[in-house]
Amino acid sequence: MLLSHNFDVSPDFVPALSREEFAQVFQSGLSAHERLQCRLVEHPHWTVEILFPTDEFSPVQVGKLCAQSLAQKRRSQQLNADTIPEILVLGGIKTTPPTSDSPDALQPGNWGVDVVETRSGEAFLQTIAWDATIAQKPAESVFKVELRGN
What distance, in Å, lies between the first and last C-alpha atoms of the chain? Predict the structure, then answer.
């Protein structure tokens, strides 16, 4: 599973995370689960790879753990309650050929997951036409985790 970060909030209210800080959120937040392995990847879009045994964790379970880890990071920053972003974790299985020959490119059959921080999850989903995007996809090939009021 590869994660990207979509930071859709003002850095005036919520500090942006570097690639390294973003990876550290999951390396720390998922460390209680020793069978989940996280690493920073060298790719222009993807930031973190999470490896997990599919007989122990479902992709949506890992997505929920990711949302909780990011929410914990934001809580630890003691942000104003009005500015804490909503977190969306939007996953889908890659069905097309890789877009680059990078060893860290998303491969067919693997999960690509956008971790989104936004002021309004509903507005963000409308902007990217989430419902239309997933309408023709099998239910087991996509997931959405929403975390509001962190």
Answer: 24
Query: Among 83, 64, 113, which residue's Cα sits nearest to residue 15?
Result: 83
Q: How far from 85 is each of 41, 74, 94, CA to CA, in Å? A: 25, 8, 27
What is the Cα–Cα distance from 38 to 28, expressed in whole angstroms?
9
- In the predicted structure, residue 139 carries a pLDDT above the cut 70: yes
Q: What is the pLDDT of residues 79-90, one digit of tens each?
A: 887 888 999 999
Contact 33, 142 (CB under 8 A): no
How far is residue 112's CA from residue 26's CA, in Å, rounded to a whole number? Answer: 16
Q: How is residue 72 written in tokens?
A: 């914990």
Nearest Cα to Cα of residue 38 among 60, 13, 69, 16: 69
pTM attached to this predicted model: 0.94
CA angle 124, 36, 113 (to 5 degrees): 20
CA-wise closest residue to 119 among 45, 4, 13: 13
Instruction: Decide: 79 and 13 in contact? Cβ < 8 Å.
Output: yes
**Nearest-10 crossing angle of helices 19-29, 59-76:** 110
pLDDT at residue 142, as a whole number: 97
